[in-house]
Structure formats: structure tokens, C-alpha cells
């Protein structure tokens, strides 16, 4: 992409309404525009990052054997009356009436609808296990939308639902989700720690939230510092292997790690004092096993091998796709701007032409630009007639991992400058070598 043809409405002033770095930087870098409280338009660069996150989520869900579907945002209130949640959900639910006077709602989550799909088409244990998921906009009329996309009212969520014959099978699905989420966040360059969460009135241990440590996080978290040394890495996983998924779960959840909702001071005190940490975190996902609550209410049952009919065991699993954009920036920025991890960066590299219109600079930049395209990478070429300082400031703000700077003095010596955004280190080298280092 050539910056002269792109739509990157960078703000010079720091927006007064933004209280935290990610919100400020997303506005300043022209990634989003607020339309109403908690409701945003995604501009080209923001949308690109959102799409990259979605892509990683889709790839990891496919790897785990989960199937993508798409359900409507607008749902019938009757479906929610069947589950008994229509009246109980409260003011977070946006309720709408159509011209026939029918009650509808903008889906805040989709257990009811996915169960409706299941009951219409599945009637035998032979069709199990089944996990369906979607990435779709949700609406929750949050009382205090804030921090930009972090707590929006309209937000993008991956929500997945497993259907299994037994509790045991459903717990394997739970473990499979935990493993796939660990991989998903790590590919984005994020450490998200699974923490025991509050399972509400249903009880049991079968819910974990994934938290990214950040001072601006809304949850207070308590954990054993050993947990931050764990990485998933690129180990091979067989998602059908029950024991293997279980052992990953044990590895990542055996140490103390809880949010304020489930914090237990006595248990925490058993962690050696030098390893006890109290910090703040951003919830970027949650997994849940809830049994037969919805399948019973909505009549989703299957025939078992012995011919009897049983309600299916279910769980639901969410990733905050749009919140992740904010969380990624909270975890990756400095005073100059964003520092994108390679896994989600909107462009792989920025090319800065210090003397636009100079024949040798222009042709060197064009050649570098082409070389990246030929390698299947996505470069952003700043080909505007702008001062060097302004070009550098823009690149630092939008935070691409690498910058190649091309100027007349360097070109005369057959050199360009390669700069790493994260370390700030620069090195001079021939253009071909700089390209080689990035591809
Ligand atoms: P929170 O505790 O932050 O209100 P939640 O527990 O209500 O979140 P879930 O129902 O678990 O949310 O939804 C799955 C994921 O969707 C959350 O882990 C979070 O990452 C994301 N999410 C929830 N509410 C919002 C929101 N208002 N704006 C952006 N993302 C959200
Ligand atoms: Mg909530
Ligand atoms: Mg929560
Ligand atoms: Mg949650």
C-alpha cells in the first residue's frame, strides 16, 4: 500500500476523552472512529488488524476441529423466552420491536440460537461430538462503555459451543478449547493466563477466564509468578487425544491464578511469598462447561447407543476479538506509539522515502516495495511529500515492526537504514540485504 493512496486519518492532538493508552493510540493512529458511546467504525488500518486477529482465531479453531458458522445478530425474543433468559438478562440486552410488533433483540451471546440449530438437525449420538462457532458482532448495553473498543457496546466476539454425549466428552471439548486458546493468543504475541473464574449459580470448576496482565485491566488478579514462565510454543497437539489435552490443562492451570471473583486468600497464602503477585488484567476470553442447562430448556437431545434419549452436554467459549486490539496495544506500546507484534501487524514493514521526487530515492523505494510484494508481504510505502520528521512520527505511531529508510546520502553509498520498532536499533545495509532480513 502507498500511503498517498491510503486512508490513515492520523490525529495530531491527543484526544481528551481517551483515558488509556490503547484508546488514545487507536484514535491517534486513525484506526477507529467513535459513532456513539461504545459503538465504533473501524477504519482501514484498524479493520486490517481486526481481520488478522479473526484469521488467527479461524485457523486455530479449524485446527481443533471446530466448525465456523454465522448466526444473525437480530434474534427472536421467543427463543430467549424458551430458555428463560429473556426476562432475566436485564438492561444489558438491547430489545427491539419490528413493524409487526414482534419482540426481537440484538444478540449479546448465542447459546439459544445455536441450540435451536442443533435441535433442528441433530438427533443421534453418531453426529457427536460437534462444536460450532462464529465470529459475529454482539451488543451489550454496558452501563459504562469505556476505554474505546475494550468495553464497547457493540463488539466483535468469537463464540463457540460444543455439543457432547456425556459430561466426560464435554470436558474434553473444554480442554480442547483451553489448548486452542493458548495457541491463539500466543500466535498474536500475547500472554493470556487462564485463571479460575466464577461459574455463577451453576457452580463447579469448569470455567476459566484468559487474562492479559496490564495496569489498565479492569480485573484484579492474584497469581503464582511461575505461571508467567509457561509458554505453549510450537508443540504438536492432537486435539482428539484426551490425555494430551488434559495434561496441557493441568500444566497451565495447576498453579494459583484467580480473579478477584474467586480469589481465596488462604489458598493464595500457600504460594511461597516471593512468588505471590497481585496485579491487574484484561479479560480476553472465557471458556465454560455448563452441562444440560440449555439442552434441557430447549429440547436438544440425542439418541444414545442403547436407544434412550438424553439431553446433550454443552459448553460455550468466547474470545473478545475487538477487545484484543486494545489489549494488544496495552501490552505493546511506548511513548511514541504502538509496537505491533509480527502476528497481527497491519503491514509487515514501512518504507520511508526521505526525498520524494528524487529519481534515485524513488526508484530504490519502488524496488524495495516490489520485492516485498513479490515475497507475499504487505509493505506500507510512505510516498507522501512530507518532512522526514513527520514521516518518522507517523511510522512510530502506527508501530510497524520494521522500517526501511531511504535517503539520497545512503543511496549514493548503496545503503538504506533498517530500524526495528521494538528495540529502536538501526543498521545500515544494502537494500537487498534489508529486504532479506525481513522476508
Ligand atoms: P466482562 O467481564 O469484561 O464484562 P464478560 O465476562 O461479560 O466480560 P463474556 O460473556 O465472557 O464477557 O464474553 C466473552 C469475551 O467477550 C470476554 O472475555 C471479553 O473478551 C469480550 N467482551 C465481553 N464484553 C465486552 C465488551 N463490552 N466489549 C468488548 N469485548 C467484550
Ligand atoms: Mg460483561
Ligand atoms: Mg467477565
Ligand atoms: Mg467472561
UniProtKB/TrEMBL annotation:
Pfam families xref list: HGTP_anticodon, tRNA-synt_2b
Compartments (UniProt record): Cytoplasm
Keyword RNA-binding: no
Residues of the signal peptide: none
Occurrences of domain Aminoacyl-transfer RNA synthetases class-II family profile (ranges): 38-341
Keywords tagged on the record: Aminoacyl-tRNA synthetase, ATP-binding, Cytoplasm, Isomerase, Ligase, Nucleotide-binding, Protein biosynthesis
Any one Gene Ontology molecular-function term assigned to this protein's record: isomerase activity
Chief site of localization: cytoplasm
Gene3D superfamilies from the UniProt entry: Anticodon-binding domain, Bira Bifunctional Protein, Domain 2
Swiss-Prot/TrEMBL catalytic activity: tRNA(Pro) + L-proline + ATP = L-prolyl-tRNA(Pro) + AMP + diphosphate
SUPFAM superfamilies, per the entry: Class II aaRS ABD-related, Class II aaRS and biotin synthetases
Enzymatic class: ligase
CDD domains hit by this protein: ProRS_anticodon_short, ProRS_core_prok
The EC number(s) this enzyme carries: 6.1.1.15
Source domain of life: Bacteria
Keyword Amino-acid biosynthesis attached: no
InterPro entries with a match to the protein in the record: aa-tRNA-synt_IIb (IPR002314), aa-tRNA-synth_II (IPR006195), aa-tRNA-synth_II/BPL/LPL (IPR045864), Anticodon-bd (IPR004154), Anticodon-bd_dom_sf (IPR036621), Pro-tRNA-ligase_IIa (IPR002316), Pro-tRNA-synth_IIa_bac-type (IPR004500), Pro-tRNA_synthetase (IPR050062)
Subunit relationships: Homodimer.
Role: Catalyzes the attachment of proline to tRNA(Pro) in a two-step reaction: proline is first activated by ATP to form Pro-AMP and then transferred to the acceptor end of tRNA(Pro).
Family: Belongs to the class-II aminoacyl-tRNA synthetase family. ProS type 2 subfamily.
Protein name as it appears in the record: Proline--tRNA ligase
Organism: Thioclava electrotropha
Amino acid at each position: 500500500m502507498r500511503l498517498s493512496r491510503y486512508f490513515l486519518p492520523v490525529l495530531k492532538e491527543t484526544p481528551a476523552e481517551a483515558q488509556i493508552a490503547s484508546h488514545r493510540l487507536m484514535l491517534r493512529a486513525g484506526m477507529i472512529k467513535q459513532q456513539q458511546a461504545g459503538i465504533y467504525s473501524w477504519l482501514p488500518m484498524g479493520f486490517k488488524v481486526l481481520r488478522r486477529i479473526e484469521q488467527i482465531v479461524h485457523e486455530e479453531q479449524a485446527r481443533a476441529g471446530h466448525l465456523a458458522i454465522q448466526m444473525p445478530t437480530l434474534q427472536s425474543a421467543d427463543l430467549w423466552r424458551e430458555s428463560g433468559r429473556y426476562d432475566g438478562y436485564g438492561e444489558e440486552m438491547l430489545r427491539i420491536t419490528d413493524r409487526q410488533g414482534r419482540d426481537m433483540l440484538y444478540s449479546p451471546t448465542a447459546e439459544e440460537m445455536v441450540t435451536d440449530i442443533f435441535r433442528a438437525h441433530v438427533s443421534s449420538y453418531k453426529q457427536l461430538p460437534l462444536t460450532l462457532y462464529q465470529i459475529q458482532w454482539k451488543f451489550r448495553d454496558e452501563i459504562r462503555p469505556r476505554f474505546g473498543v475494550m468495553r464497547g457496546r457493540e463488539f466483535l466476539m468469537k463464540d463457540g459451543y460444543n455439543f457432547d454425549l456425556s459430561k466426560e466428552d464435554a470436558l474434553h471439548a473444554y480442554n480442547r478449547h483451553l489448548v486452542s486458546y493458548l495457541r491463539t493468543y500466543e500466535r498474536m504475541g500475547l500472554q493470556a493466563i487462564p485463571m479460575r473464574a466464577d461459574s455463577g449459580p451453576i457452580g463447579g470448576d469448569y470455567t476459566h477466564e484468559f487474562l492479559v496482565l496490564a495496569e489498565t485491566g479492569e480485573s484484579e488478579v492474584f497469581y503464582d509468578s511461575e505461571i508467567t514462565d509457561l509458554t505453549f510454543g510450537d508443540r504438536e497437539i492432537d486435539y482428539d487425544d484426551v490425555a494430551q489435552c488434559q495434561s496441557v490443562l493441568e500444566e497451565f492451570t495447576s498453579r494459583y491464578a484467580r480473579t478477584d471473583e474467586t480469589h481465596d486468600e488462604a489458598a493464595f497464602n500457600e504460594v511461597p511469598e516471593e512468588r505471590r503477585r497481585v496485579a491487574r488484567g484484561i479479560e480476553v476470553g472465557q471458556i465454560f462447561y455448563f452441562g444440560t442447562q440449555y439442552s434441557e430448556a430447549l429440547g436438544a437431545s440425542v439418541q444414545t447407543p442403547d436407544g434412550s434419549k438424553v439431553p446433550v452436554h454443552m459448553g460455550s467459549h468466547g474470545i473478545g476479538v475487538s477487545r484484543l486490539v486494545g489489549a494488544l496495544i496495552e501490552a505493546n506500546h511506548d511513548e511514541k506509539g504502538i509496537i505491533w507484534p509480527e502476528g497481527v501487524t497491519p503491514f509487515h514493514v514501512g518504507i520511508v522515502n526521505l526525498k520524494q521526487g528524487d529519481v534515485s530515492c524513488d526508484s530504490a523505494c519502488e524496488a524495495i516495495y516490489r520485492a516485498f510484494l513479490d515475497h507475499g508481504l504487505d509493505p506500507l510505502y510512505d510516498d507522501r511529500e512530507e518532512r522526514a520528521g513527520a514521516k518518522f512520527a507517523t511510522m512510530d505511531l502506527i508501530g510497524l515492526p520494521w522500517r526501511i529508510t531511504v535517503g539520497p546520502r545512503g543511496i549514493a553509498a548503496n545503503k538504506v537504514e533498517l530500524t526495528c520498532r521494538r528495540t529502536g536499533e538501526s543498521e545500515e545495509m544494502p537494500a537487498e540485504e534489508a529486504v532479506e532480513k525481513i522476508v
